[in-house]
Amino acid sequence: MTWTTPITVRSYELDALGHLNHAVYHQYAEVARVQGFAAAGCEWDGLIKAGTAPVLLQSTINFRRELRAGDTVHVDLVLKFSAGKTFHADSTITKLDGTVSAEITCLLGLMDLTARKLVADPQAVLAGHGLDVSVLG
């Protein structure tokens, strides 16, 4: 089962064409990252207090179907770790009828806020702060 969070499109998030502004898709993915980390046992505030913070390095969106005011979507979060200092946090924005509206792929690192450098093993540090990736599917 994939973890998701519901979001309803608000009228002030629309562009001149009447559909969701492209930048808001990034915001929806950010909501999913923050809430997903919390659901998996790792609050971002706790990370920051401990001197680390997730940092976005790259984000790519594939737009599939438009969203309009009042549409409710589910935004999921899937974390993918490999060896190295970076990891992926990917989201799919899906309408209630199952139509995929957008796919968002993000590359992140975990920054040591004192050294201002990425930590060598972000998965281990996040696990040490309670992150249970199995909650996120």
What can you see in these coordinates?
This protein is of the alpha+beta class and 137 residues long. The protein has one domain: Hotdog Thioesterase (Thiol Ester Dehydrase, Chain A). Helix content is 23%, strand content 37%. The chain has helices at 22-39, 44-49, 122-128, and strands spanning 4-8, 52-63, 72-76, 78-81, 86-95, 100-112, 117-118. Strands 1, 2, 3, 4, 5, 6 and 7 form a seven-stranded antiparallel β-sheet that branches. The chain is elongated, with a radius of gyration of 16 Å. The model has no long low-confidence stretch (mean pLDDT 96). It holds the Pfam family 4HBT_2. It comes from Actinokineospora cianjurensis. This is Acyl-CoA thioester hydrolase. One of its GO terms (molecular function) is fatty acyl-CoA hydrolase activity. Keywords: Hydrolase.
Assign the CATH architecture.
Roll
Main beta-sheet strand count, sense and barrel state: 7 strands, antiparallel
Q: Briefly, what CATH class?
A: Alpha Beta
Low-confidence stretches: none
Number of helices: 3
Secondary-structure element sequence? Answer: EHHEEEEEEH
Structural class: alpha+beta
